[in-house]
Design a protein that fits this description.
Elements (H helix, E strand, L loop, with lengths): L1 H19 L6 E8 L10 E6 L4 E6 L5 E7 L2 E9 L6 E8 L2 E2 L4 E3 L12 E2 L8 E4 L1 H6 L8 H4 L5 E2 L2 E2 L8 E4 L2 E2 L36 E7 L14 E6 L7 E10 L11 H4 L4 E14 L3 E13 L15 H9 L1
Parallel strand pairs: 1-7, 1-8, 13-16
Antiparallel strand pairs: 1-4, 2-3, 2-5, 5-6, 8-9, 10-15, 11-12, 13-14, 15-16, 17-18, 18-19
């Protein structure tokens, strides 16, 4: 009996590990280190520093000159230093990394006895998969109507609002920091994530607002037909987002957005009564991040609230309504 319980616990633990690894939440840097004759350099030291937080990671090239550094924070900028005995140190600045694997960063080191005139950095071609990656810089610059990720994931050429490659949005898989955040019950709006309608297909989307603030998102990635076995649980699109974290500097923002009935044009006569009634939508929030212990621990806090009042159409007694007030009251009385 004890053996059966032990095996059951081991199976649950392995299943939990597989679930946690289901989606990408970090970046991977890889490449080749060679000399000026194209021969691989074994044992070259590669140090990667994330400038906003001061976090560093390091590795060495293998006997084929190949190096791989996984589990890096997305974004940047990064500073990369490559050193080896008998060769000049190479420093690469302002490197940006995206979710998942990035293009190979290949570096050619020059001997110390030779004056360095130029540094040759090449990026090897990878098989391109359908989808897009939208980073923090793009999210700050691109317009958004509903302040939802749908305003950015629609940049995918195969998308139609929140529908990808002709598949219904309910067949997407949405993950936030690797955790699945789908609408399992099916309360999402039927119109598939039109701007201003929230992030359809996610938990809480029936409220017509996003269950998370766009202000807290660092990067979002859409993949349609990935070859990576870590991605699955979808037949439409995989929408994978990661949230921000603090840096060594304190940064914050306070924001507010809204619209009211006086910003809208006049409605047709048949709907005038409903449309001319007062309605509004207001959203306010703040975000702040910074260091707890410099270069070691950080914090990021975001709070947001949305309030909305909307008119309803074709109520009992309204022009074009199916029933009169008297008929509706008769139904209630019955």
């Amino acid at each position: 009996m004890k053996r059966q319980i032990t095996l059951l616990l081991a199976s649950i633990l392995l299943l939990s590990v597989n679930i946690l690894k289901a989606q990408e939440t970090s970046a991977t840097l890889s490449g080749n280190i060679t000399d000026n004759k194209g021969a691989p350099i074994s044992g070259a030291s590669i140090v990667v520093k994330h400038e906003p937080t001061g976090a560093t990671a390091s590795t060495q090239s293998n006997n084929k000159g190949i190096y791989v550094i996984p589990n890096l924070k997305t974004g940047g900028p990064y500073t990369i230093k490559i050193t080896f005995v008998g060769f000049k140190e190479e420093v690469l600045n302002d490197i940006q990394l995206n979710l998942g694997n990035n293009a190979d960063l290949n570096v050619t080191l020059a001997p110390k006895s030779t004056e360095l005139k130029e540094v040759l950095i090449t990026s090897s071609a990878r098989k391109q998969e359908a989808g897009v990656t939208v980073g923090l810089k793009q999210m700050k610059e691109l317009p958004t109507i509903g302040r939802s990720l749908s305003d950015f994931t629609r940049l995918t050429p195969q998308s139609n609002n929140n529908s990808f490659a002709g598949s219904n949005f309910r067949y997407n898989n949405f993950t936030l920091d690797g955790a699945i955040n789908n609408d399992a019950i099916g309360f999402s709006n039927s119109f598939g994530g039109v701007s201003g309608g929230g992030q359809s297909g996610t938990a809480g989307a029936g409220t017509r607002t996003s269950p998370y603030s766009i202000e807290s998102v660092q990067e979002v990635q859409v993949q349609l037909a990935p070859y990576d076995v870590k991605l699955g649980n979808f037949t439409g699109g995989s929408v994978n987002a990661v949230t921000k974290s603090g840096t060594n500097e304190i940064h914050g923002s306070v924001y507010g957005f809204g619209r009211t009935s006086w910003l809208m044009g006049k409605s047709p006569d048949s709907l005038k009564k409903a449309m001319d009634s007062k309605f509004y939508e207001n959203q306010v929030g703040f975000a702040i991040g910074g260091p707890i212990i410099k270069n070691k621990a950080f914090f990021f806090v975001n709070a947001e609230i949305t309030r909305r009042q909307e008119p309803t159409f074709y109520n009992a007694g309204d022009p074009g309504a199916a029933i009169t007030v008297a008929q509706a009251q008769a139904v209630v009385d019955t």
